[in-house]
Amino acid sequence: MADFKLHCFAQSGNAYKVAMMLDLCGADWEPVFVDYFGGATRGTEFREGISELGEVPVLEHDGQRLSQSGVILDYLAGQLGRFGAETEAERREIWRWILFDNHKFTSYFATHRWLRHLAEPKGHPEVIAFLAARARGALATAEKRLSARPFIVGDRPTIADISMAGYMFYPVEETGFDLDREFPAVAAWADRLSELPGWRAPYEAMPNGLVPA
């Protein structure tokens, strides 16, 4: 039995953040497929038995069930001794960027991807355009930051990078953002993360929610 179980599906970038962390740490883990597109997270069984929030990721470890990707990343950094803060000042800086990610970076990027690619029916064009503009604004903030340094906080990867990179490895056909062309510093940063030992792409690491695994 694996040390860690991650309730997830491959289309979830938030679940991928945790899968990426587990892979990069060389952890003993296994995915537990959640049929999101079949309504599993909205059902009583999931909400009462797995997470009252009705979302993935959910991590099972040592008799605990943890939800929310930022909380899980922080927990894993403590448990596995990788990608965490080395000082209190660094801890605050890491959390500053994780909160930015949750509020402005992942939130707009993921919602835009959902409405243009995954939702049925697709979102209204004006809504998609609004979300694209907001996502590009957040990407521009990251572009400026990463033009001056290799990683989000300092010269080494941390859970801030792993959090912000959750949706960076999905194909441009899904996201609508050509990072190499529009945000080259962000693209180069994602490449650096993908070169770390143990890294896998989302559709390699987790069960696909739309086709048989």
From TrEMBL:
Keyword list, A-Z: Transferase
Domain (GST N-terminal): residue spans on this chain: 2-84
Keyword Transferase: yes
InterPro entries, A to Z: Glutathione-S-Trfase_C-like (IPR010987), Glutathione-S-Trfase_C_sf (IPR036282), Glutathione_S-Trfase (IPR040079), Glutathione_S-Trfase_N (IPR004045), GST_C (IPR004046), Thioredoxin-like_sf (IPR036249)
Annotated GST C-terminal domain residues: 87-213
One Gene Ontology molecular-function label: transferase activity
UniProt xrefs under CDD domains: GST_N_4
Transferase among keywords: yes
Superkingdom per UniProt: Bacteria
PANTHER family named in the record: GLUTATHIONE S-TRANSFERASE-RELATED, HYPOTHETICAL GLUTATHIONE S-TRANSFERASE LIKE PROTEIN
Family of the protein in this entry: Belongs to the GST superfamily.
Protein name: Glutathione S-transferase
